[in-house]
Amino acid sequence: MDSLLTRSFPCPSLITNGENDWRRDNLKKACFSGNVVYPVSRFRTWNIVERQCTARFQQSLLKPCSKGSGERPIFYQRQNKRCIVNAAAGQPLDSDSGAYNSNSILNSAKSTLDAFYRFSRPHTVIGTALSILSVSLLAVEKLSDFSPLFFTGVLEAVLAALFMNIYIVGLNQLYDIDIDKVNKPYLPLASGEYSVAAGVMIVTSFSVLSFLVGWIVGSWPLFWALFISFVLGTAYSINLPFLRWKRFALVAAMCILAVRAVIVQLAFFLHIQTHVYKRPAAFSRPLIFATAFMSFFSVVIALFKDIPDIDGDRIFGIRSFTVRLGQKPVFWTCISLLEIAYGVAILVGASSGFLWSKIITVLGHTVLATILWRSAKSVDLSSKAAITSFYMFIWKLFYAEYLLIPLVR
């Protein structure tokens, strides 16, 4: 049991001018005048606190306030509060500075990570990682194929592709700063959290890292996947003559389809098949299905991403299908394309020679098609927030499909 100590704490003398009486009363409160009971074990450092509190109050009152001034120093209140907090904690005043610095460093680190998280466009990062893992599984023929070599090959491919993914989305943000101030003001470049120089440094670094990983790995399918993605991603965004293909709706859609549907499926499958397993190139039934299905899905993503961005695109002359045709026709075109893709997937699943594959793929695609249709009917097309939320839902369906693709046999 902590012993108790009763003590009276004297307050420092003040300049008797202007608001002296008011200051004296408040200072007495700040320094805990009167008989107050405190646990001794928690206030072993009180004498040090008392001396520091007295000295700092005298300095804060003498320096800011000239004689005859009726102004009350702002620093007075801050020091007053700080003295009280530290005295109540039973710690020297300097410890508060250390705690503040620790919190400041932690908050700064959180802000930095949050800004980079938004800059990297995490829904595309997740999609890239899942797609590579899923397609890599299509090359697995027997249980013994799950070897350290396989997991190393997948990790190499994912790492290089994620670096390239960040380059592509970052470059797009660099050339879309004004548009994003309208469409996506929360992005770091649009909001001013990142300077243009910082954005250039990030995208340059990640492009170099991507090619460096590809060169170290020595896989030609991986290298060509990175190179073609780099070329198309650059041509899509960069504002040079005959480039910035995102201005042209059909060309923009073809860029996304080429990367998401063709390169991801074929190149990363061949990376595992030929580079990791050292087997001859072969295009299996599941791989053909994955390429065809994701062609539909990539077109849908290419079209749908412009629906919530119609305002900024119209202002800055981006002639997307949504700007040309309107939100509602493009929205239902996307839904129809996905429903057709799910219908084809159900037929492919039903024709499988493996009962377990037949059940899972037919049931899985039926459930996804039903959820899509019911969700689409409830979307308020006059609300940008509702459309953006549904766009993120489309990406979730994208992830779900890559969970089903390895089960197609």
Question: Features of this protein?
Answer:
2% strand, 409 residues, two-stranded antiparallel ribbon, globular, 71% helix
Describe this structure in words.
The protein is mostly helical and 409 residues long. The protein has helices at 20-30, 46-62, 74-89, 93-119, 122-137, 148-174, 177-183, 188-191, 196-217, 220-237, 249-276, 285-304, 310-315, 321-325, 327-350, 355-377, 384-404; strands at residues 4-8, 35-39. It has a two-stranded antiparallel sheet. Helix 9 (196-217) packs antiparallel against helix 10 and helix 15 (327-350) runs antiparallel to helix 16 (355-377). The longest helix is centred in the middle third of the chain and has 28 residues, at 249-276.
Strands side by side in the biggest sheet: 1-2
Approximate shape: globular
Q: Please provide the count of β strands.
A: 2
Taken in chain order, the helices and strands follow as: EHEHHHHHHHHHHHHHHHH
Q: Which structural class matches the secondary elements? A: mainly alpha
User: Sheet bearing the most strands, described?
Assistant: 2 strands, antiparallel
Spatial gap, N to C terminus: 73 Å
Q: What fraction strand?
A: under 5%
Provide a count of the helices: 17
Q: What's the average pLDDT?
A: 83
